Amino acid sequence: MTTEWDSANSYWTVVVNGTGFTGTTDTTELRVNGRKQTTVSLNGTQAVFRIVDIDGWTLSNINLYFDVGLPQGYDTVIEGKTFTLGPKMTSITSNAGSLGGSIIIAQVEGVGPLSDSSSANWAANGVDLVDSTSQSSICQSVKLTSYGVVECTTITGVINSATIAAKSLKDQTVENCSNTDTTLCTYQQLDDNSFPDVVSVASSVAGQIVFEGNNFFTSGHTANASYAGIYADQISIESSSKATATWTLGFPPLGVEIAP
User: Residue 94, preceding bond cis, omega within 30 degrees?
Assistant: First the structure.
């Protein structure tokens, strides 16, 4: 049993070699800490599984299930092995952002959410997105929302077009783009006046806030607005310079400290 990076398909696999394997991809399972992975292929001597759901970087408590052919009283082969994967970034969405900072999603195979979400554990075992040349971070905050999905709120200011890499905070290793098409890993923030810019915010009608500015997207994007942490029920982009957000039950109350 080994772990291998499938460069053609851009994902981590577990490869099991042996003899007398039977069944199909539907009847053969690999589970990591009880979580089912995807069976990619199976023949008489080899089974290949794609890793799709783990916590952190580690594969442990690995159970392999066949349909038939195991010793009497057993229905699983239990491997007493533990594997540690590394970050493999394969794409970023989107590839350009605002000078004010943007939320971008990077596909980073090999790491899942940390079971301990404390800042100390994140600093020791988390992941970051960095410029592959300077190795400086492009994120002011990072979240692992699910296996392989890294949400980065980018720093403010200009970020010249660069290929972005994934950095393991666990061992400080930096892995350049692992996609055969490296353009999918590029990102930039340029002062080219193409991104939304809010100039004013006002409310003249109960439960409504009007935003005015420049370069608002009128199609192809979804807008959100929040007040006191509560998202608007509806937001209308009326033009490239005006948007109106509506809270149907009125604005949520703000917490006010009351002195004894």
Answer: yes
